[in-house]
């Protein structure tokens, strides 16, 4: 399967945020998106995730399951926020995401306990999400990627608030996903230590 972006541009309000972005990612490849604050990294990821409409250009999948037309149908999106309910326990949050997302064809997610263990937080999975520290909350958001299988991972500053150990752990999860034929697009200021990567430097427009 390949993820193709062809001549994408996006607007927020009056402003054109980026113009004519193209890339092609094969199974096992990652695109690392860098650029200064406000250059449009989050905007690009939101377009890829189907949360914002592109002003022009096209996104498509080549060689994927035929019933899926838009890449977001096969994607996990990890945004700046963790998308967990503070008053529900970690287990309840992850169970919700597991049921809500479901597995894409070609793989299956791990159970909630295994996902919590994979991010090193089995001991606190019974606690309300709101009790966790910022770094623990980010780890749990990573576990969401594991409970339902999606071949494409869209990651916005995934390692924000993570300590060095969690940073390595997260790189490991991403590398495993790529080795299994996944595709990753990550906006990040920190290196994820990946092998097969393409780089996209966002420059933004001067207003
Ligand atoms: N809802 C919105 N309405 C209007 N402008 C917006 C909106 N959201 C973002 N912008 C603008 O779009 C531009 C790109 O923002 P974006 O969040 O994509 O940048 P970024 O590269 O991810 O930045 P950062 O590194 O700070 O996270 C910024 O100038 C921002 O002010």
From TrEMBL:
Q: Which residues form the ABC transporter domain?
A: 3-205
Give the PROSITE patterns listed for this entry: ABC_TRANSPORTER_1, ABC_TRANSPORTER_2
Please state which protein family the record places this protein in.
Belongs to the ABC transporter superfamily.
- SMART domains tied to this protein: AAA (SM00382)
The gene coding this protein: ccmA
* InterPro entries recorded: AAA+_ATPase, ABC_transporter-like_ATP-bd, ABC_transporter-like_CS, ABC_transptr_haem_export_CcmA, P-loop_NTPase
Natural source organism: Sinorhizobium numidicum
Please identify the protein, giving its name as recorded.
Answer: Heme ABC exporter ATP-binding protein CcmA
Show the Pfam families listed in the entry. ABC_tran
Q: Which UniProt keywords apply?
A: ATP-binding, Cytochrome c-type biogenesis, Membrane, Nucleotide-binding, Translocase, Transport
One example of the protein's molecular function in GO is: ATP binding
Tell me yes or no: is Membrane among this UniProt entry's keywords. yes
């Amino acid at each position: 399967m390949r993820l193709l972006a062809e001549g994408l541009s996006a607007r927020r309000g009056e402003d054109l945020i980026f113009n004519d972005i193209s890339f092609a990612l094969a199974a096992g490849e990652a695109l690392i998106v860098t650029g200064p604050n406000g250059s449009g990294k989050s905007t690009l990821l939101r377009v890829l995730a189907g949360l914002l409409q592109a002003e022009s250009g096209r996104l498509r999948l080549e060689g994927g399951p035929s019933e899926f037309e838009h890449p977001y149908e096969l994607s996990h999106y990890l945004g700046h926020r963790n998308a967990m309910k503070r008053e529900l326990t970690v287990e309840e949050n992850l169970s919700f995401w597991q049921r809500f997302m479901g597995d894409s064809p070609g793989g299956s997610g791990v159970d909630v306990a295994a996902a919590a263990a994979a991010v090193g937080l089995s001991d606190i999975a019974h606690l309300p999400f709101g009790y966790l520290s910022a770094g623990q909350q980010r780890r749990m958001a990573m576990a969401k990627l594991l409970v339902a299988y999606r071949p494409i991972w869209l990651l916005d500053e995934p390692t924000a608030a993570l300590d060095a150990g969690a940073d390595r752990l997260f790189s490991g999860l991403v590398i495993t996903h790529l080795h299994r034929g996944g595709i990753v697009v990550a906006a990040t200021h920190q290196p994820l230590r990946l092998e097969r990567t393409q780089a996209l430097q966002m420059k933004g427009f001067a207003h």
